[in-house]
Amino acid sequence: MNENRSQGLDLELDAEVAQGHYSNLAIISHSTSEFILDFAAILPGLPKAKVKSRIILTPEHAKRLLMSLQDNVARYETNVGRIEIPQQQAPIGFSQKLN
Prior knowledge:
This protein is α+β, with helices and mostly antiparallel strands. Helices cover 31% and strands 21% of the residues. A hairpin with a 4-residue loop joins β1 (25-30) and β2 (35-41). The model has no long low-confidence stretch (mean pLDDT 87).
């Protein structure tokens, strides 16, 4: 994660991958040997969410990702402000607009 930059890791990022994928839903599962992260997008008017990317990690790399995310969220909140998460989570999906 961030540690790799300080070690001089040379990454190749092609144009298609650089565009990325939008995700507003992550589903995380695990076995004894791996963690699976599925990133999906739930969009209005579509009948179901579509998984856009699946990342499979070893338990060690999952923990390194967790630590890196915690560090990045802390730095974000220091610079930009606290990220608020509503106490009561809205159901997955979108509500219909009333006229």
